[in-house]
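Action item from last week, closing it out:
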Amino acid sequence: MAARICHLPASLLRSLRGAFSLQNLVPGAITGLRHACTAEPSVQTPGIIESTEEYKFVERLIPASRVPDPPRHTGPTPSGWTPPADSPPDLPYMIRRSRMHNIPVYTDLTHGNRWMTLVRKVEGDIWALEKDVREFLRDVTGKELPTQVNEVTMTLKVKGQYDQELKQWLSEKGF
């Protein structure tokens, strides 16, 4: 753009420089594309008025930032959900509930026919959890099942589809 302007005639360059310079501003005069005006605006805009009485209508529309705590139950609900124990069990590991307050045990189907059970949100000694899960599943199935521990993501994988058994077992332990 600068190269093109240099090839313009000198008289045109002077008029362009004069149109866009800030030295010759006259109040009320149009200079370039802007209107230079120092007068106060004639219309006064009202200030912002905060109404706490009407805010209840706005609160309904704002989505909740988190899932509320569930009401207290003494046993399983009609949907089958069970609340955690009042105090966590005295074990070297802890399994936190998901944000929907469920036990974080999931199944995964890979390669079309390989089922894996995944235990997430493990805190503490994951190797002690793996040992206890192996013993529990050995009692349930009668055979030794392959497991995989991931210490970085703190997850435990078990080969097979044992999510319901593990959820029930963890619920009985108090998680």
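Closing note: The radius of gyration is 35 Å.
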